[in-house]
Structures are given as C-alpha cells and as structure tokens.
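note to self — DONT lose this again. spent like an hour looking for the file last time. sequence + predicted structure for the chain T wanted, 158 res
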Amino acid sequence: MYEWLLFMHVALVLAFMLLHGVQVTVTWIKRFEADPEQNLALFTALPSVLPLRITMVTLIVSGFLLVAWLNIWTKGWIWLSLLLLVLLWLSMWRWGGGYYGALSLTADAAISARGTSDEAAARAAFNAVRLSWHAPGLTVIGVVGTLVILWLMVFRPF
C-alpha cells in the first residue's frame, strides 16, 4: 500500500507541474508582449485553475496519508514542507494574481488612451507592470521553493 500512496503522491506532483506549466508559460509570454490588445488576448490561453486546485488538494491529502501510514507526525521536515507549500501557494496567489490584475487594468487603460494626451503615460504604466519583477520573481520563488521541498522529502534532515 505504501508504494501506491508514494506513487500517487509523486504522480500528483508531476501532474501539478504539468498543469501549472501553462500558467508559467503564459505569464512569461505576457511579459514580452508589448501590444496591450495582444497581451489581453493571451488571457484566453489560460486554462481554468480548477484542475490545479483539485490536484493540489489531492496532493496534500496523499501526503497526509503517507505521513499517517508511516506514523511520522513528529518529523519536522514534514511540517516545514507543508509550511513551504502553503507559503508558495500564498505567494503565487497574491503576487501572481496581482500581476494578472494589474496587467489587465493597465492594458485596458493603454487601449482606452490611444489617440489622447494620456496615451504615453498609460503606455508607460502598462510597460512598467508588464516588465515588473513578477514573472522572474515568481519563477525563482516557485523553482527554489519546490527544490527545497523536494530536498526535504528526499533527505529528511530532521
């Protein structure tokens, strides 16, 4: 039974990474798309986040089932891994969602300001958001956080 739980847990991690890859790719494409209309059109490439959420919940459940099966509730690496996962989720939700929201607002404003005296300022605001730290910063946070969790799971340091 342990092997099947472990298999399911690892498979769910891989499924989550695969599903999340689309969001990451679109985020990077949006960063380099300078036309506000084309940038907004890229939102249609984003799939529903429901499969991501379902995968994340089942991933956490499978982790808790493994912990229960092995009866290792007192191991610190388990709780640190869960804490890091929650922090990763919160940072992606807060800053990733904030990036998409701000990008949408400034792209709309840049489109609305075309041909007016506000066009340059609106375009500058759109470019400032588009080229902000969000895409590279969230990529680094996601990759490093995931690697730390993987390290904790494999090496179980404490």
